[in-house]
Structures are given as structure tokens and as C-alpha cells.
Description:
The protein contains 18 helices and 23 strands. The mean pLDDT is 94. The strands form five sheets. Strands 13-12-14-15-23-22-21-18-19 form a nine-stranded mixed sheet, sandwiched between helices. By secondary structure, the protein is an alpha/beta fold. Residues 357-359, 385-386, 409, 464-467 line the site of glutamine (GLN).
Amino acid sequence: MKSNCKYIFVTGGVTSSLGKGIFAASLARLLQGHGFRVTIQKFDPYINVDPGTLNPYEHGECYVTEDGAETDLDLGHYERFLGVDTSQSNNVTTGAVYQTVINKERAGDYLGKTVQVIPHITDELQRRMMLLGESGEYDIVITEIGGTVGDIESFPFVEAVRQLKWKLGSTRCITVHLTLIPYLASAKELKTKPTQHSVKMLLESGLQADILVCRTEYPLNRDIRRKLALFCNVNINAVIEAIDVDTIYDVPLSLLKEGLDDIVLSKLKLPKHGEPDLTSWKEFLSRLKNPTNSVRIALVGKYVELQDAYKSILESFIHAGAANECKVEVVSIQSDHISAENVREKLKHMDGVLVAPGFGDRGIEGKIAAIKFVRENNIPFFGICLGMQCCVIEFGRHVLKLKDAHSTEMNPKTKHPVIDKMEEQKNITEMGGTMRLGSYDCRLYKKTRSYDIYKSQAITERHRHRFEFNNEYLKDYEAHGMMAAGVNPQQNLVEIVELKEHPWFIGVQFHLELKSKVEKPHPLFVDFVRAAIQQKERKLK
Ligand code: GLN
């Protein structure tokens, strides 16, 4: 199919962590508001084939798509901002590109030619850059190039963009360069020199920035804009200020004020009919900024020092908080700092406790102590993936009196493997891409809290795990009040457990946090926050 899709490439200059992902998502949301079908993809220059094997300390959360790809956390921002799903094709790494090229070389596809970065790697990059665009599903594809211009690793990416721009022409392909305008306190001045250098560096690789987006703590006055325009060879109305804002969800509106959508549409020769439709976005923002209530929720996990490790959970709380017009204060607590002795002190002021997903043994006993406390004290509890598995272990040990109940992930020799690997997973030894990944069906039983919340019996949710509730114990659990509220119908795997006699106690095997969107908060999170509000009211009585 011949497609007329337009391409916007987003590069970064001066420093990393400028928020290219948020910028790309915000621009996409504006263009979506104008009625265009937009998707965003991320090209990462590292050699890992995907981020699935990266430690969350290194790279933050691993975001899983519907089709089971383990991807960069920026894809989470794309989905949350746009409300549309991404897929395997939306995240490409140098490792994946080399793997394809090397496999082709081994298969003899290059017919004896020397295989080189240019043209073979750059051709494969271009093929992948255009893959979604050529599907016919999108009018505009935004591609975020990871890393900073000038990095050795990103050179082939920049070269691929240069070639693509040359082939497609300037009305089908533009480059937006995100850069930093630092403020020197001693001189009381904003400085443009680092930006001039990074635009020059881009130009040395043959790529002219069409639009400059300038991260800054202070407004850019006309003189600075003129200077940037002159030295960086862009129109003055293509110098866009991206000033620091209170929440990432303000970014689309702040870019709208700067006229970013106008300049992008005019450069791409796309029609503009009035202002973008951001009605429900603005409604969300107004609820977010005018809370009538507040709750404090503990996030108990292994990686709490690094905020990015639980990015989607934190964002889900923001969405669910806004839906309840409630400010959710998330208190991160490292699980290996919790013990039976201090758990009361740490959790007694909480209106709800969420036990996070994770891998490995560290902090497990702290999570179990936290769950025992909230179960016995009727504090709302939400367990996600490993958090759900921990609530099963806790219940097994303290209610079913199965003394050493455990997951075989932590104790392969336990007498009571209440959480165990599925049979077909048992022979797998590789770590990369070998989990139960992506979207699976779940069927909810009527007369459960989960059914009341989802208001449907057939749901799908995303997964990333190896271990499962061991069905041999299910009868015993149900006899004591922990019910399977949802199961995967194809494999009869327990997906949700609930406690009958508790104000709110739900453990889910899946990662529901990956599906919460700004304009469509996840119902389980919304209801958990509502339960936390009720808990706070109970305490005040
Ligand atoms: N480690 C557990 C498993 O593999 C839980 C995984 C998770 O929390 N994502 O089943």
C-alpha cells in the first residue's frame, strides 16, 4: 500500500533526561486533538535486544505492550497520553537491528557483499522507521531517537533520519530538536551556547533541525528567540519554549500556547481546522488540580529509591486520584526495611497499601509482614503480580497454617509451593523474553468485588511473570475465605484473588497499571483510591 504518512523525528541535545518521551507524547496528543491518527515509536541506541533484561535501577520500569513486547518506559507515556496501544514495532534498539542484519547475513541474503553500518544497518533502521507509517493506520508517526546527539551510538540513527528526510522531502519528514537553555544564576542569564553547539553537531551529520524546543526554567524573551533562530538556522516561530510545569500533564497545553501544533502542521502541509479538541484532557487536569480530598497510600517494593522503577503505578495513582478528585500521596517504603516488629509503626497511618511487582528474594519477608498487618487491620490492600503472590503466601502461612508456604521462585524446596511455575515453563533456562508476556483473557466470576468494579465478565490484562497460583491449593484457600475472582479460561490460571471478609483486599497476577490512561483511568485503581478515602473517613470517626 502506498502511504502518505508524515514523519516527525525528535532528537535530543545538550543533556539526557530532558523529557523527550513526554514531549513526543504531548505533541502527539495535540496532533490527535486535530483529528490525526498518530503513533509514537522509540529508537534506542543500546545493544540490548530489548529492555526486558535490564535492571530497573538502570533503566526504570520495563513496559509491556499488548502483544507482549518488553519495551522502554516511554511507551507507557505514549499510551497514557494518546489512549491508544503500542506494539512490538514501536520500540527498536540497536541490538534488535543488528540481530536482524546478522541473521540475514548468516542466511546468505547479502549475496557475498561486505555487511556495513552504512548502508546495511542504516537501511534496516529506515525500514523499521517506516514500518508503522506504511501500515496505513496512521497519518503521522513520531519517532523519538534515544540518547543525545553526538553520542557514538546514535550516529547510525541520525544518518538513517538524514537519508529518510532526503528521500521523503521536507513536507513529509521534519526534525524537532529538544534542547536545554540553562540559566546561569551568577550572570542572571539564560545561555544559548550549548544549544547552538548541539544544533551544529546535528548539522555536521547532515541533519538540520526544523523546530527547536527549548527546555527552560525561565521564559524565553524575544531577543533570545531571535538569537536562537539566527544561529540555529530556524524560523523564529519555530523556536518553542518548553518551560518547567507542575505536572507532565500540563505539557500539551503549554506547547499549545507556544503554537507548536501550528508550526508542525504548516511544515508538514497538513490542514488545520480550528483548535485541537482537548476537552476531556482539560477536565482531567481540572480534577487533578482541584482535589477535595487526600489519602496516603504506601507503595511497598524493592526498587523504591528509583521513582522510574514503578512509573506506571505512580501514574495510575495520578489518574485514579483525579477521577476521585483526591490527592494521592504515595509513600514509598522499601520492603526490606519492614519487619514484624516495625510494621505497625510504618503502616498505621496509611489509608491503603499497595505491594509492588518484582523479582527475587530480597524484601519478600517485609512484604509478607506488611500484608499480614493490613489483612488483620482491615486496611485496603492491593497486590500486583509479585504483590499478589505474596498475599497468597501470607494467607497460606498464617490462615491455612501451611508453615513454610512459599513461591518456588524464592524457595524451590518448599513443602508448600503455593506459587509455582507452570509445567510448560519448567524447562526454560534463558532469561530474555521467556515469561508469560502480554495480553491474556481473564474471566471474572459474578458476585465478586472485581466483577462489580469491571462491570464485565470478560476482560483482558497484560502479564509479565513466570510463576502462578498453584491450583492444588485453591479449594483450601476458598474454604478459608480467599477466593479466585478471575481466571484465565484457556489455561485455568488464577488471575485475581480477593478476600471475602475485608473492606478491600485484591491481588492481581497481571500488570493492570500498564493500561491506565489519562482519559481512561483503570477501574481497579479508581476503586482502590475510593476505598482508601473510605478508610480515612472510618479512621476520623
Ligand atoms: N517474580 C514473579 C514471577 O515471575 C512476579 C513477577 C512480577 O511481579 N512481574 O512470577
